Structure formats: structure tokens, C-alpha cells
Amino acid sequence: xxxxxxxxxxxxLLKNSLIFPNEFRDSVNTKLFETSSAQNQIVRPQWVRxxxxxxxxxxAGTITLLPEPYCLxxxxxxxxxxxxxxxxFNTPIDNYLQFVPVAAIFGLKAAGVKSRSDLPNQIAIMxxxxxxxxxxxxxxxxxIRIERPSGEGMNTMPSGHTAQAFVAATVLDMEYRDTxxxxxxxxxxxxxxTAIGRMVxxxxxxxxxxxxxxxxxFSAKVVYYTHKYRxxxxxxxxxxxxxxxxxxxxxxAMQL
Length: 256
Prior knowledge:
Layout: E1 2-6, E2 9-13, H1 22-63, H2 75-85, H3 94-97, H4 100-110, H5 119-143, H6 160-176, H7 181-200, H8 206-226, E3 236-244, E4 247-255
Antiparallel strand pairs: 1-2, 3-4
Helix pairs in contact: 1-8, 4-6, 5-6, 5-8, 6-7, 6-8, 7-8
């Protein structure tokens, strides 16, 4: 008796030669190998493509940490320009905008809009993405002690509001992009507005929001590429006859 693990479930292959002839075993093993190889070829480019945008955002945010003599887009210079353009600007709207993409994910689902995942998997994906994002953000805030531009504290890096907005906007994008690209555009527009709000409210440097956005997107992508879609699935059992020139048998497969 042998258990063979595949991405589609767990196949239990009874290796008794009286039940399963050699031809059947060889064909099954070959098929599993071919499927595994094809899946590996598909997954690798996904990881690469998924890492490009968050890596670019984090790199850009890191560059702005350099002082003005070494960087034309230094966070200090950008903050000075922003304060001149929006003197005394203050609004609490960014505290609420960060959660709009989350509300949109489940609101659209409740309205019956077609999505990539069913509700149990949406909840699982969102929970895991939020957890990963939260661990990274709070870990960095505790470790990297940088003062806020307003001088209110030493926990400016990275922006938690921005990370929250972008992790949810990315999940919204992944779930509904095939239904309508405008849903994705709306989600990222809200997330970007949240990030800009943190800057004009003088709560964060540009480096904080760029890195926060990168962390949010990265967290959502990692969860999607590792999620197994087991929530909400029924167990499936299939029993099929197998007839070959040297004998017959029965194949048994269970998908979890």
C-alpha cells in the first residue's frame, strides 16, 4: 500500500500485483511525474512576477532614506515640498479608507459577484494575508526605530495603514480581476489615496508608505501562491475499473 501526494489531493495506490498490473502502476507513476514537472514550470514564473512590484516599491522606499546630498528624491526633501503644498492639512479619512478594500471583497461576494475563490477560501486567504502583513509591519516598527515626521513617535517605518490598504487591495485584485479590471483599479486607487493621506497628514515619510505598500502586496501574493484551497471542499472518492492484457483491477483515488 502506498500513499502518493499530489497538488490535487492524496492518491492511495494499492500496490498488490494481483489487483493492479505493472502497466497500470507504470502509467500512474509516469502521469504523476509529468504533472509535477509541469506544475513546477508554471509556479516558478508566478513567484518571479509576483515579487517584481513589491521588490521595486521596497527598493524605492529604501533609496529615499538617503540624505538629500545623495538622493534627489530624499524623504526629507519630499516632505518639505508636501508641507508647503498642504500646510496644516489634517483629515481622519485615511483611518477608514484603509479598510474599504476589505469591505469590498466580502461585499461583492455577498452581492453575488463572481470571484476566484469561494467564501471559506476568501476568509482563509484574507486572514493569512493580514497575519503575515501584521507580523512584518509590527516586527519592523519594533526593530527599526525611526521618528515620525510629526515627531509623535519612533514607530514610523513602515506605514501600517498603507500596508493594510494594499494587502486588501491585492486580495481584491486577485479575486475579481477576471470579472472586471475596474474593481482592481478601484481597490488600488483607494489604497494609494490612503498612502497619500498618511503623508499629507504628516504621519509618515514617503519611505514608510512605499515600503508599507510593498509589504502589503508581498503578503497577499505569498498567501495566494501557497494557499491549498482546502476550505469548503468536499471529500471526493473515485473508484474506476482498470483492464489490461495481463489482467484487471480497480483504481481507488481520494481527493481531500
